[in-house]
Amino acid sequence: MADARAGRGIPVSTVLGRRLGGELLRMRESCGMRQPQAAEALTASVPKVAKMERGLVPMRDPDIRALCHLYGVEDRKVVDRLLGLAKADRERRKAKGWWNQYPELRAQVEYVALEDVAVRVRTHQVTVVPGLFQTPDYARALAVGSGAWDDPDEIERFVEARIARQDRLTGDDPIQVWAVISEGALRQEVGGRVVLRRQLEQLLKLAVLPNIKIQVLPFMAGAHAGMNGAFNIVSFAEQAAIDVVYLDTPSSSLWLESEQDAAHHVAIFDRVARNSLAQAVSLSLIRRVMEEL
Q: What are the E-state strand segments in 134-219?
């Protein structure tokens, strides 16, 4: 729907565009400037600046550099991150991101695009192992069990896309992942005992990476703040950047982008993490579940 509207020349707001526009809006307001001043610096109209700040139009690199200079933002890392965000948004709009090769991702495509430019993800999972940690066999079993695809080839492409996401876990600038996984997800025999055992082995291997933290929320924790469901909190490099919260449901995906919603879910995550086992104890529990298999 959104891409079709863009093809007809109708302004379309994207998650990446709103993230970029929101950062520029906060930068402008923090230095006490108004939209007409930004428009003058860009030799543009005030309505265009408003569209940029609302994520309705793709942004050019010269405009971002000009606004950063106007707002007194000279930190190269901050500017480069904004430029990267703008590039990812342009690629998303033009369907050039690798994730757009996989229509099987469906509603998750915006999340994957955002994850690609994020620096940290905090994920609370109640029933499954986080997607970034899944083995191909585990992901395939989930796809088959969901009943969302009838064509085996579509399932394989979905699995391929899910595994491609894991490139963000390694490399020169790996994403930081803090995962809180309910004990029930470790015991649910997705794909059978052999598949689950290999999945648990994968968790133990990933846990040694310096950018990954895994905690298990044990059954003995009882009632807790995160019982209403799973969610991901996506964070960015800028110190003032507001986190984005992503919730995936069987029928749709929901984005929570306000500062209040982000703070609320960060507080929930922190409470759940405090109720969870420390990483060393969590890994011991994972090993014990493996032995039981």
A: 176-182, 212-217
Residue 231: enclosing H or E segment and its boundaries?
strand 231-235
Where a domain ends, among 96, 127, 150?
A: 96
Q: 127-185, pLDDT tens digit by residue?
A: 999 999 999 999 999 999 988 788 899 899 989 989 999 999 998 889 999 999 999 99
Task: Provide the residue range defining the domain that includes 254.
Answer: 105-292
SS3 123: strand
Residues 92 and 115 in one domain: no
131 φ/ψ angles, rounded to the nearest 5 degrees: -55, -35
**Helices 193-206 + 136-146 axis angle, to 10:** 130
Give the Cα-Cα-Cα angle 213, 214, 216 (nearest 5 degrees). 150
User: Do 136 and 86 belong together in one domain?
Assistant: no
Question: Which residues, 6+ apart, have CB-to-CB distance to 258 below 8 Å?
Answer: 242
pLDDT for the residue 238: 60
For residue range 177-208, list pLDDT tens digits in order: 999 999 999 999 999 999 999 999 999 999 99
pTM for the model stands at: 0.78
Helix, strand, coil shares of the chain, percent, nearest 5, are: 60, 10, 30
What is the token pair recorded at 273? 């993490």
Question: How many CB atoms are located within 10 Å of the residue 30 CB?
Answer: 12
pLDDT in tens, 72-93: 998 988 898 888 888 877 876 7
Q: What is the DSSP string of 245-274?
A: EEEE-SS-EEEE-SHHHHHHHHHHHHHHHH
Last residue of a domain, one of 36, 61, 96: 96
| Residue 66 shares a structural domain with residue 135 | no
Domain CATH code at residue 143:
3.30.870
